[in-house]
Structure formats: C-alpha cells, structure tokens
Amino acid sequence: MHELKRRAPDMARQALLLALAVAVVIVAGAVERLRGSDAATVTGFERVAAFGPDGSPLDDVALANPYPMPKPVGVDVYRITFDLDEGAGAAPLALLLSGRMAVEATWDGAALGANGRPGATPDAEIPGRIDAQFPIPAELATPGEHVVELRLSAHGARLPRDGLLHALAVAPARPDARRPISQYAAPVIALGVLAFAILTLAGPGAAAGTSRRLA
User: Which residue from 5, 37, 12 is spatially nearest to 174, judged by alpha carbons?
Assistant: First the structure.
C-alpha cells in the first residue's frame, strides 16, 4: 500500500501525458478528415459592400481581417473566391455554410438560394438556420476559379468571440445540412480524456493532503 501511494504521483503524471497524446491524435485526425472533405480552396475573402439600417451604403467597406465576419450593422456583402479542384465535380457539390445569420448566396452570379432572409433591420430579417447548404448546379462546378457572393444580416445573433462564421466550404452535398455529430465528438472526447488525467493527477495530492489534516 505504501509503495502504491509513493508511486501514485508518477502514475498520475504518466496518465496525464498519455491523455494529452490521445487528445492530440484525436483532434489532429478530425481536422485532417475535415480538410480532406473540401473540394475547393479559398483564395480570396473580402467584404465588398455594407449597408446601414436605412439601406444607405456605408464607408470604409474593406476590412483588414474580414474572416470570420464581424456582425453587420445592417446588411453586408462578401465576395469569396474558390479554386475548385480537378475532378471535384464528379459528385454533386454544395456550398456549405454555418453561422448565425440570414444569407443569400450566388455562384458566379447565379443564385444558389437563401437561408432565411437578410434585412437591414430586425423586422425586415427572417433568421436562417445555423447550418445550411446550397447545391451547386453540375454545369457550374467546373475546375478552376469561382466567385461566391454572400448577402447577409445577423440582427438576432449574439456576436461570438470568433465572429459570425463557423464554417464555409465547397464539398460533396450531404443528405442533411447540419454538421455531422462526428465534428463535435473529437473535442468532447479530448476534453473528457484531459479532465480524467487532471483528476487523476490531482487525486493523490488531494488524498495526501486530507490524510495529513486528519493526522
């Protein structure tokens, strides 16, 4: 028993290192799978227009750091350039968009659809779902450069620390626009493993402190 107590801190430290290694592998694997699902690379991202609550255009449209989108005052328009990979159009593609916003999307000037309805004021806006996908017509999904324009508003959104946009990609269309649960599983598992390791590391010290106080 005394030997086990003596070795407990070393065992806890080893458990923590193992947990950290497992967490890194899980998260790295998830990120690699997500990268591998994209059919295009973003080569340009800029805000090209902004309008106030009265519909009038705003000055200083350009943003030094437009991604991942500050909350609009009224309606903002973004232009994103994608470089579509060779052979990417073999399967039906879609523009995948996640964020707390109402948005209308075009692909090379052709309307892809809307998620909610952007509006210059809260009354004019119809909020969209967090996750949305816009199918890209097969005849437009040719290799090379394409331009996506997003017209959006977000009056009901509480601005997160990292901006409005959670995800944006051109990838094979999915049966369900919502992000798969596997995208959330990796960080949850990693945090669980890390928490277990911290509790394991803290356990022997806490127990020893309790024993000393009782003595």
Answer: 37
- As a whole number of Å, the end-to-end CA separation of the chain is 18
For residue 67, what is the DSSP state?
Answer: T
Q: 129: number of CA atoms within 13 Å, CB side?
A: 12
Other C-beta atoms closer than 10 Å to the C-beta of 166 total: 17
pTM of the model: 0.68
DSSP string, 105-125: EEETTEEEEEESB--SSTTT-
53-60 long-range contacts (CB < 8 A, ≥24 apart) are 53/120, 53/121, 54/120, 55/120
Give the tokens for residue 13.
Answer: 């430290």
Per-residue pLDDT of the chain (215 residues; tens, 9 = 90+): 555 556 656 665 666 666 556 555 454 444 444 444 588 999 999 999 999 999 999 998 998 888 889 999 999 999 999 999 987 767 899 999 999 899 999 999 999 999 999 999 999 999 999 999 999 999 999 999 999 999 999 998 876 556 888 899 999 998 765 555 445 455 566 666 666 666 665 655 544 454 454 45
Give the integer Cα–Cα distance in Å for 98 and 138: 22
Number of residues that this document lists for the chain:
215
